[in-house]
Amino acid sequence: MSEGFAQRLKRAVARRVAMNPVRAKLDRAVASLTFDDIPASAARVGATVLEKNGVLGTYYICGGHTGGSFEGVVQQTRDDIVSLRQAGHEIGCHSFTHADVTRLSLQGRDAERLQNQAYFAALAPETDLVSFAYPYGQVSVAAKGYYAKRFFTARGVMPGINSGIVDFAELRAISLTHKSFDLETVRALIARAVAHTGWLVFFTHDVDVSPTPYGCRPEELQAVIDLLREARVDILPVKAAAARCMFGPGGAG
Prior knowledge:
Elements: H1 3-16, E1 21-23, E2 30-37, H2 40-52, E3 58-61, E4 69-70, E5 73-74, H3 78-87, E6 90-93, H4 106-123, E7 131-133, H5 141-150, E8 153-155, E9 165-167, E10 174-175, H6 183-195, E11 199-204, H7 218-230, E12 234-235, H8 238-247
Parallel strand pairs: 2-3, 2-11, 2-12, 3-6, 7-8, 10-11
Antiparallel strand pairs: 1-9, 4-5
Helix pairs in contact: 2-3, 2-7, 6-7
């Protein structure tokens, strides 16, 4: 059995095992806009798009990349993180070094989590890391069990709408990239979320006029916001959306 096939099998099994199931108590559809890593453009251009619309997002950050680059993409700075916090955006955890957490030991997962936690505690003491996103979208039963015990939610990259019984250990998410962006597909997803009283989580990386294959253009992010507004879907950071999903309308935070 090849290692590649073994990894795919483990991931498939993990996605069928709900480690932190929650019965959604939403009374209407909600959505979250999230950014991974995060590139400098997401912290600046992406945040500008959100803020001009009165919207707050969730930024899953690797503290070990702050002030540097990752896979050839310039990442956020300390000042960017402080600005995001001051604007009210949620800061989430994406491990400290963007490690594939399915390949780490218990001690390795602890080290990545605690390093990131310590980094943000020193930079912005008021930051409470309660939302996690799996680097590379890689999940396993062991990893899901670990993060389910230590974070309010953990977000994956498996496409879908979170409704009915929602696995808070691996939230379904919709990739928002320029290479696959289609306005009518997004419109149809939103309509499904409204019909099923679901929670839509979008994720992207950089936000640039010439984005990487993992990022989107500013006008595409704006178009998603416009469609959500048109459908009267509340746009909330992951932490607030999860609270509303778990506790009902009064739990939006």
